[in-house]
Specification:
alpha+beta, Aminopeptidase, seven-stranded mixed β-sheet, 26% helix, 30% strand
Amino acid sequence: MPSANVLFRRARIKDVNDITELINHYAKLGDMLSRSHMQVYSQLRDYYVAVDGDRVVGCGALNIIWDNLAEVRSLAIAPDYVGQGLGREIVNRLLADAADLALPQVFTLTYKPVFFEKVGFTRVDKKELPHKVWKDCIHCPKFPDCDEVALVKNIP
């Protein structure tokens, strides 16, 4: 259960530095891909944040890939807030957006598959995902030897 002090909302311009820092903290650990300020600015409308006071303590984005598919990406929770339900709440909001957009399926590529399984995603072979999913992968230092786990969730 998220702390009563944590609010969830759409990201705002003033959140970009905090979002970038949070994502890049985990990128330095090898847990996710880094994001530049420019990338976050250009995709800001895709993000939800968890905020405690003036501090962004969680973020996640829904990136539309095509007319039938979107990706949950850049899900990051401040280390001192992990385990409080913030990630689950952000993912639920992203999935609600996908449903509002009538997207039938959402996927994620992650090093934390157990978390996503707990929120209803199912593991799949990466080869089952369409080629357009891999547009960002060309910039990844692990390309073409991706070791992330692919998971999908059908949206009712």
